[in-house]
Structure formats: C-alpha cells, structure tokens
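Support reply, case 0932

Customer input (verbatim):
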Amino acid sequence: MQPEERHLAECIARLAYANPFLTERIECEREILGSDFASGRQFWHVDQGSEQIGAIQARVEPLVETLGERLRAGVRGSVKELRLYRDVVLYWVYNRYEADFLHLVERRDHGTRKVAFYSQFAADYERAVDLAGNFEGEMSVEHIFAFFFQVRRAFHLIFRHIFGGSEPVARLRAAIWQSVFTHDMRRARRSLFRRMGDVTTLITGPSGTGKELVARAVGFSRYIPFDAARGAFTEDFESSFYPLNLSALSPTLIESELFGHRRGAFTGAVEDRAGWFEACPPLGTIFLDEIGEIDPAIQVKLLRVLETRTFQRLGDTADRRFEGKIVAATNRDLAREMQAGSGWCAGVVPRSTRRTRPGPSRAGSGQSSWQFAYR
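Our regenerated output:
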C-alpha cells in the first residue's frame, strides 16, 4: 500500500469497528473525508449521517478496486496490509448491501423466507477476500452474513426506538450497542457472538422511562445463524422475546411462570406446565420487568439460573437447563438496597451485577452482566 492508501485503510478499519453512537464515529468520518466532512453534530444523526456514508463509500470502492487489481497481478503485501484490506472489504460489502439488510429487518417474514441477495453477497465477498489468501480463524461467509444482519438490525432498533437527539440519549444508545457487541467489535465478530446470550443485562431507571424499549432493542439484536443450505436464517428475531412483569404477579405465580410446575405442586396445578425458562429457545430472551420486587426465596432460585443455567419445576427434582438470555429491569436503587441489607441486598445478587457503569465483566461466563442506568 502507498502511505495515503494505508492511512485511508486504517481510518476505514477504525470506523468499521467503532461504536456508531459515540464521538469516535464522527472523528473517523472527519479524518476520512477531510474538507468534505460537513456534519456539525457531536454525535451521529441520520439527517447528516446518510450523506457522509455515501461520501465515504465513494472513497472505499476505488480503494478496494485498486488493491484488488494489485493482488490479482501478484503483488503481495504484508500480513498487516492484508488484514487492513480485509477490514476495508468488510466495510465495503456491508455498506453495499446495507439497504438489503434493512429490508430484512423491516420485513416481518424474514425468519421463514429465502434471502434472495445472499448468493450475490457471497460472490462479492468471497471474490474480494480470497485475493488476500486465507488467515487462521477467518469466519465463513455465512457467519459474516449473519453478523452483518445483526449489526444492521441492532443499529435500526436502537436508533429508531430510543428517541431523541441529545447527548444523554446518544450515550444511552452507545451503552445499548456495547451491551449487544461489547466494546470490542472485532472480538464480538470472531468469537463472542457465540456467548453473548450468557451475559445478563440489567436496566435501571425510574418508572415510565422506557426500560422495556431498551430491553427489546437488546433482545431483538441477538445473533441469529444463517443456514446457507436453506438460504434463510434459522429463527425469527421478533418471535423470541418473552416479557414478564413480575410486580403484577404473586410469588407463587412468579415461580410457576418462570420455572414451571408439576401437576399437584400447588392448589390449581391440574397438569404439568413448562415455565418461561423452559419454553425460551436458545436464541430467545426473557425480560424480567421490576426484578427488584420479587421475594427473597425466589431470588435464590433465580440466582441459580444466572450462575449455573439450571432450574427445577415446582414440585419436581429433575434439573432442566435454560439456554436463552435474561434481561432484567428495575426502578429501585439496588446498590443502595444491597448496602442496606434488604430485598435484593441479602447477599443473593451475583457480585458481577454490582456495577455502576456500562461494561462487561467476564464475557462468556454465566455470571457476567451488564448494567446501565438512565433518566
């Protein structure tokens, strides 16, 4: 690569993996476009951002073409340059099919119909990437396709459903994005996409501030594998979100709803029944609203699910496994209550949930959690 080409490729790579709702995105766009950068906003907004994306893509396409021609001619770069080339290709392909991915997000039968543009996407991606040779640990085109669908879906749901253009709203969007992908998008693409369902998300804030909107954005943004043989995604993201308002149920009903029960476990239990933890599929999300209201005895059972991913139906001794993701919300100040030793403070909350700002604990562990608060 020539020095100016390497600089542009490095800027594009940083932009490709940046949190799109933080100032880092604006800084990357400004560095790429130079005097052509026109945005006057501190945070990204659709009013000006769409034009910026088009202008950047207009610079990416000739770079991909130029570097591709050299590779076809037998010119070989360093490993660092080849990896930069792959990052540029990823950005180029994603934006080339961004409108198609958005159509999939908005189409309600996306989980059952064949995706018509996959074959062309695969051809474009493989033709460009194969020029750089194979790297150990590189992902299949099916995975890249599924990851791009997740990225476009997450951006759409977060931006469109979390309203406002203020700095606090932008930071809330950024925190939700980080809850879906962590702070390292490269690592999320390579490996963490398999384990993010194990990470519990806790949302705190006053009643009426839209905590369920945040929960839906997180739950609907999970990674969904793509089946190349069928030409379709394996599940529909809209059908795997299970909200439960705990404050509206008695303790017995909460246990039955969450864990299920055997016939005769309590008065009125006339047949065996599966609870939410059993009915939720591996790619599903259970939203526990007002988690701070539940009885301490139920907290202990819920803690076992968070730590071991196992539970038992009421009146049963057989262990069952929960494979989905948990998102919880509360209007209480749990940190203060834990210090006071009441309710959730009685020592049954996983230590990793005691966090004061967005950020991952041990990603991939059943005890990992995210917490973000807003007003």
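We compared this against your earlier run and they match. Two observations from our side: The chain has two domains: 3-174, 186-373. Confidence is low (pLDDT under 50) at residues 345-368. Please reopen the case if you see a mismatch on your end.
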